[in-house]
Design goal:
Blueprint: E1 4-6, H1 9-41, H2 44-71, H3 74-98, H4 103-131, H5 137-153, H6 155-165, H7 168-192, H8 205-217, H9 220-248, H10 253-263, H11 265-276, H12 283-300, H13 307-333, H14 341-352, H15 354-374, H16 386-389, H17 395-415, H18 419-423, E2 439-441
Antiparallel strand pairs: 1-2
């Protein structure tokens, strides 16, 4: 299938706005379910399992989603993905309303939503290339990061307040409604855009997946970048999973929500800067600098129990992250032909996020059975490291954060020495279509 789409930053903004609203809703549910699980079990493992089941199907099935994004109308795939994601939440909500829900019900529901998210994500990424000119890629990436930041900026503080005045069921209803808004936004641009389809020879799915795989592994610079990002996501997976249990060990859900929202102002500011000021070069240098700042802030999160210091470290971390994501995104997007981007983003999605899967699988065990026992009264490191960062519940997670942050800095320093990463900036013309008359080919 081939489709001809007129590029339009305005139409991109409509889709982006729908995704912004749905991201806020997703953040509300993610925060609330994490707090719910921790309060029920008082273990990091239950929170880690929710995170694992939320992302594992999405990551494993993303190559298939990428193939579908190249074969069919990408906007239709986004609609199907959002509908299926909402259905998973409806399942959880219906059990909550009819009886005593168990944790495994939540695992099943979030996993079902994750399956359909695997359809939506590659189509959304590839659609951005359809709708944007090449010189708008960094600006579009900045706005996408802004939408992503809403999960941390608005959702936690809203969820923290809502949990104190209403129920988790109401919060899930709000999330379902936000998915409907995202679907409506896609329908709006679908009606206003003329799409011409031409039939072409259809390969089987494995052939398309292999093409995506070949496209990634034959571009050594892109493959190396994906490996680096996967190593970084391994360490970031611990932070995403365990920041809640660490803070809830000495504070409450409302304070946790306030921390996440206030520190996420850093991501908001950075995303706005990237969206407003167009970057056209030195993405590799920005990537390295961003990784160094992320690693430093990551380690600082574990140094103290002072909530204001932790908020400062969170602000520093989240203000650095958009620059890492934008640089990696543009370096890949500029080095992969547009007609292959759906399947390529699917392959990159699973490869770059393997680190998350491993971290989610290990985080609960490492926190509850390895690091936390080291840092309680009488623990093996209580009289040494504990004299610096403190002892008691959650301080083992703090130690894990410090170690992980140092490894992220090490990865950044190694990346700065790799010539193949720098060479990606010199190969930035491949994503441009041969006819530059405002048309993108799918």
């Amino acid at each position: 299938m081939e489709q001809t789409v007129h590029k339009s930053f305005g139409k991109f903004l409509i889709v982006w706005f729908g995704q912004l609203i749905s991201m806020i809703g997703i953040g509300l549910t993610a925060f609330s379910l994490g707090v719910y699980a921790f309060e029920k079990t008082n273990t990091a493992t239950s929170v880690a399992l929710i995170t694992l089941f939320t992302f594992l199907p999405n990551i494993l099935l993303r190559p298939i989603g990428g193939v579908l994004a190249d074969r069919f109308d990408r906007r239709t795939m986004m609609i199907i993905g959002d509908l299926g994601s909402a259905a998973g939440l409806v399942f959880i909500l219906s059990i909550m309303l009819t009886g005593d829900i168990q944790l495994w019900h939540i695992y099943v529901g979030v996993a079902f939503s994750s399956v359909f998210s695997a359809l939506q994500s590659p189509a959304y990424k590839a659609s951005a290339t359809d709708l944007l000119d090449k010189d708008q890629f960094s600006k579009g990436s900045g706005l996408v990061q802004l939408a992503e930041s809403s999960k941390f900026l608005f959702s936690p503080i809203i969820a923290g307040i809502l949990l104190s005045v209403t129920t988790i069921e109401v919060i899930m209803m709000i999330n379902i409604a936000t998915f409907l808004i995202a679907i409506l936004a896609v329908l709006v641009i679908r009606k206003s855009m003329k799409v011409e389809r031409e039939d072409k020879e259809k390969h089987n799915w494995m052939t398309d997946i292999k093409e995506g795989w070949t496209e990634v592994v034959t571009n050594k610079g892109v493959l190396l970048l994906v490996i680096i990002i996967s190593l970084v996501t391994f360490y970031l997976g611990f932070l995403e999973t365990l920041i809640g249990p660490m803070l809830l060990s000495f504070t409450d859900a409302k304070t946790l929500g306030t921390f996440q929202s206030v520190s996420a102002i850093g991501m908001l500011i950075s995303s706005l800067c990237i969206g407003i000021f167009t970057m056209t070069k030195k993405y590799a240098s920005v990537l390295v600098a961003g990784l160094i700042m992320c690693g430093l802030a990551f380690s600082l999160l574990g140094v103290s129990t002072n909530i204001y210091f932790i908020i400062f470290a969170g602000f520093l971390f989240l203000s650095s992250l958009p620059f890492v994501n934008m640089s990696a995104d543009v370096l890949v997007r500029n080095n992969i032909a547009n007609e292959k981007q759906g399947r390529v983003w699917g392959i990159i999605g699973i490869l770059s996020q393997l680190g998350f899967i491993i971290a989610y699988s290990l985080a609960g065990f490492l926190a509850d059975h390895v690091f936390n026992p080291l840092m309680v009264e009488g623990g093996a490191l209580a009289s040494s490291v504990g004299q610096i960062i403190g002892t008691g519940p959650g301080r083992g997670i703090a130690l894990l954060f410090i170690i992980a942050g140092l490894f992220v800095i090490l990865i950044a320093l190694v990346t700065s020495r790799l010539k193949m990463i720098k060479s990606l900036e010199q190969n930035g013309d491949i994503a441009s279509p041969p006819d530059v008359g405002g048309l993108a080919h799918d």
